[in-house]
Design brief:
Layout: H1 8-19, H2 23-44, E1 54-58, E2 64-66, H3 67-81, E3 86-91, E4 98-99, E5 108-116, E6 127-135, E7 155-163, E8 167-172, E9 177-183, E10 188-193, E11 204-206, H4 217-226, E12 238-239, H5 245-255, E13 258-261, H6 274-287, E14 291-293, E15 313-316, H7 318-330
Parallel strand pairs: 3-5, 11-12, 11-13
Antiparallel strand pairs: 1-2, 3-4, 5-6, 6-7, 7-8, 8-9, 9-10, 13-15, 14-15
The structure holds 6-O-phosphono-alpha-D-fructofuranose (P6P).
6-O-phosphono-alpha-D-fructofuranose binds next to loops.
EC number: 3.1.3.11
Enzyme class: hydrolase
Organism: Acaryochloris thomasi RCC1774
Length: about 325
């Protein structure tokens, strides 16, 4: 099949037919595709319509909200508000879970970071959207956030959209990872990266080294090891860090490598949020053959006790994530 004529929607309908996944999941992913098209257009023209800059408020996790953060959240919420399939939405931009009026007995929960890396917006650098879809664990009317508090192992679908030199949508429902590139002249996401596999090794690592002095001494040794270009025992890694989790994890997914955001004394659980950043990306990367850990625990296994709960994260090539865990525990490669 010529991939470049396989639209995202046609792919989803074929997946439904072949894998017997519920058609509702295909419809939910179609809606995420629609939201991604709207955001791709609006992000690219934000400077022309006055949507750059700060709102002047902070979100639930203390991040300064950009105008496009608020707008992106509205676009994603509206894409799921009238289809009657989503009971509630947990979003980085919402203090509490938003119950969806027409979905009070719907069976799915959406968790999302509508605009990841928004500090990049005003300078035109890459940003992303992250999404995870859970089946409700309760019955009857959805009335509390409890339905959203599920570990990554319960995800039925997850993925991200990267708004970069092109707009890509990458997703999994648990049997493989497929990537689609937006053709803006058609307004369609076309299959461009079928069955993505994460290389076991990579040549880059991605971390904010300005926190080096605050990391665990064993992780300082990892950074020294990765950056040792004179070593004869292992290949050194080059640092690549964009400030957008989606962009940095996407690089690791396609080319191999390691992204990590560890804990510090000031942030004992790190900065990244488990429910709508770490867990959905962990599902994608694991389905592609990579790994994702907090340093001591598989991200997908971590119990979720609050919607904005944070977790340290190391994600990417399996060998690199295992190296990270070994260094964190022992301060050496093995
Ligand atoms: P820092 C963006 O705010 C984000 O959540 C991720 O997209 C990104 O990797 C990280 O935080 C950047 O954080 O502390 O390096 O600016």
């Amino acid at each position: 099949m010529n991939n470049l004529t396989t639209t995202f929607n046609a792919h989803l309908w074929r997946q439904h037919r072949l894998s017997k996944q519920p058609i509702e999941i295909s419809i939910l992913l179609t809606q995420m595709g629609f939201a991604a098209k709207v955001l791709s257009r609006e992000i690219s023209r934000a400077a022309l319509v006055g949507r750059l800059g700060l709102v002047g408020e902070k979100n639930a996790t203390g991040d300064a909200q950009k105008k496009l953060d608020v707008f992106s959240n509205q676009v994603v919420v509206e894409a799921f508000s009238d289809i009657g399939l989503v009971a509630a939405i947990a979003s980085e931009e919402l203090d509490q879970v938003q119950l969806i009026e027409c979905g009070q007995d719907a069976q799915y929960i959406l968790c999302t970071d509508p605009l990841d890396g928004s500090s990049n917006i005003d300078t035109g650098s890459a940003v992303g959207t992250i999404f995870g879809i859970y089946r409700r664990s309760s019955t009857g009317y959805c009335s509390t956030e409890a339905d959203a508090l599920q570990p990554g192992t319960e995800l039925v679908a997850a993925g991200y959209v990267l708004y970069g030199t092109s707009t890509m949508l990458v997703y999994t429902t648990g049997d493989q990872v497929d990537g689609f590139t937006l053709d803006p002249t058609l307004g369609e996401f076309l299959l461009s990266h079928e069955n993505i596999r994460c290389p076991d090794q990579g040549k880059t690592y991605s971390a904010n080294l300005s926190y080096y002095q605050e990391w665990h001494p064993h992780l300082q040794k990892l950074v020294d090891y990765l950056g040792d270009h004179k070593s004869t025992s292992h290949a050194a890694h080059t640092l690549r860090y964009s400030g957008a989790l989606v962009a940095d994890v996407h690089r690791c997914l396609l080319e191999g490598g390691l992204y990590f955001y560890p804990s510090t004394e000031e942030q004992p659980l790190g900065k990244l949020r488990l429910l709508y950043e770490c867990a959905p990306l962990a599902f994608v990367v694991e389905q592609a053959g990579g790994l994702a850990t907090s340093g001591t625990e598989r991200i997908m296994d971590i119990e979720v006790t609050s919607i904005h709960q944070r977790s340290p994260l190391a994600i990417g090539s399996a060998a690199a994530v295992k190296l990270y865990e070994n260094f964190l525990e022992q301060g050496m490669p093995t």
